[in-house]
Design brief:
This protein is an alpha+beta fold. The protein has helices spanning 2-21, 39-52, 172-183, 194-203, 224-237, 269-279; strands at 26-30, 36-38, 58-63, 69-71, 78-86, 97-105, 113-121, 125-131, 137-142, 145-151, 160-163, 187-188, 207-211, 241-243, 264-267. The structure holds 2,5-anhydro-1,6-di-O-phosphono-D-mannitol and magnesium ion (MG). Magnesium ion is lined by residues 64, 83, 86, 227.
């Protein structure tokens, strides 16, 4: 696993360099979800593929920017599912973006995720790594090296509310939930990049990030393998919770297709309990 984490550190530095120096425009291709790919999406995907291709413990790669599964080493134990540059459409307005990695052993489903990582490209490059039975570890890059900062633990209750999706298309129960938190004094923190938004909640002690099913997207927008399950693991390891709209742990998701999405809620315990009440979910 250390080899995989070391490779993620190397690609993070390269992707950060690409963000800072390369063309921010669109390529002439689409990804599997039918979204136009930016040149930076394609470049970041290539940087990651190139970095992992000679690592024999990696069986395959599955990318948000690729249609199928890229087989690498038959004898490898791990499949890495990644979103090379999440929130990439925010790069041209100079907001933070990120990379997300889920490392799976065996069939691609939540229960088989053995480690997660994400990188935030902001004013600094930051990295969070998580393995089973340990608190997530927070690192910050300086002169090309990642220095350990601290373990991450969520408080029982936070102050931040990050509600995703188009409000016009929210269910009434969701609107009631979001409004209820604001009525309790929660503050809106939503940049449109799940990596910096979820990172902020983790580091500021707690709150909730939601991306619900909506009338236009009943299964939400965020992809299970590359986005939802890796962050669910990190939130649970930090002492929080990550569930779908039925109250199921996101770690129990079994995607039928690599690009399947899921409604998702990540938060500290108080806000997830409030969500369950608003959605009529029994514990
Ligand atoms: P992307 O993978 O195409 O960049 O999309 C994922 C991003 C997330 O980072 C973010 O939470 C979400 O899309 C924002 O969507 P919306 O603009 O609908 O709020
Ligand atoms: Mg994404």
């Amino acid at each position: 696993m250390q080899t995989i984490f070391d490779t993620i550190k190397k690609v993070a530095i390269k992707i950060d360099h690409a963000i800072k120096t390369e063309d921010l425009g669109y390529s002439d291709s689409e990804n599997s979800s039918g979204e136009d790919q930016l040149k930076l999406d394609v470049k970041s995907d290539y940087i990651i593929e190139e970095a992992f291709q000679d690592i024999s413990i990696v069986k395959a790669l599955v990318s948000e920017e690729k249609e199928g599964i890229l087989a690498l080493h038959e004898e490898g134990n791990y499949t890495i599912c990644y979103d090379p540059l999440d929130g990439s459409s925010l790069a041209d307005v100079n907001l933070s973006v990120g990379s997300i990695f889920g490392i799976y052993e065996g069939e691609l489903k939540g229960e088989n995720l053995v480690a997660s990582a994400y990188v935030v490209y902001g004013p600094r490059i930051e990295l969070v790594l998580a393995v089973k039975d340990e608190k997530p570890q927070h690192y910050r890059a300086q002169d090309g090296l990642f220095n350990f900062i601290s373990e991450i633990t969520l408080d029982e209750k936070g102050k931040l509310n990050a509600p995703g999706g188009t409000q016009q298309n929210w269910a009434d129960s969701h609107k009631t939930f979001v409004d209820g938190l604001f009525a309790e004094g929660y503050r809106l923190r939503y940049s449109g990049g799940m990596v910096p938004d979820l990172h902020q909640i983790l580091l500021k002690g707690g709150g909730i990030f939601s991306y619900p099913g909506t009338t236009d997207k009943p299964n939400g927008k965020l992809r299970q393998l590359f986005e939802v399950i890796p962050f669910a693991f990190i939130y649970e390891q930090a002492g929080g919770q990550a569930i779908n709209n039925k109250g199921m742990r996101l770690m129990e998701l079994v995607p039928a297709h690599p690009h399947d999405t899921s409604p998702c809620f990540f938060g500290s315990n108080y806000e997830v309990a409030a969500l369950k009440t608003a959605y009529g979910i029994k514990n």
